[in-house]
């Protein structure tokens, strides 16, 4: 006799795959736009932030296996990236906060300037 749902263990796999694709796409788009704005090769920016987004979103969704927990994970990841944006910029040459702001401004979403600017 089988107990519980046989899909309970695998339920996070589909969410993790989808989240990895979405995270990679968002990261690549943010990196591409920011690289163009900064005069860097756009492919370099897209590859750097796309890979980071894919790994972070996929790992977060697989580990957490819940959409609501994943939303909290993304918010916490955003806070960590915001706090450590200077070391990230030093390592990659891309400021992740400016990349998100430039992309959202390109979409026509009005935002106040980031704190400290």
Q: Can you put this structure into words, describing what you see?
A:
With 117 residues, the chain is mostly helical. It has one domain (13-100). It is 74% helix and 0% strand. It is built from 5 helices and no strands. It starts with 10 loop residues before the first helix and ends in an 11-residue tail after the last helix. The model has no long low-confidence stretch (mean pLDDT 79).
Largest β-sheet summary:
none
Q: What's the number of domains? A: 1
Number of helices: 5
Count of individual beta strands: 0
**Average residue-wise pLDDT:** 79
Order of helices and strands: HHHHH
Gyration radius (Cα, Å) is: 17 Å
> What structural category do the secondary elements indicate?
mainly alpha
Which of globular, elongated, flat, extended, rod-shaped describes the shape? globular
Low-confidence stretches: none
Helix content: over 70%
As a percent range, the share of strand residues is: under 5%
Q: How many angstroms does the end-to-end distance come to? A: 63 Å
Notable traits:
single chain; 117 residues; mainly alpha; globular
Summarize the structure.
This protein is an all-alpha fold and 117 residues long. The chain has 5 helices and no strands. The protein has one domain.
Topology:
Layout: H1 11-38, H2 42-64, H3 67-83, H4 85-92, H5 96-106
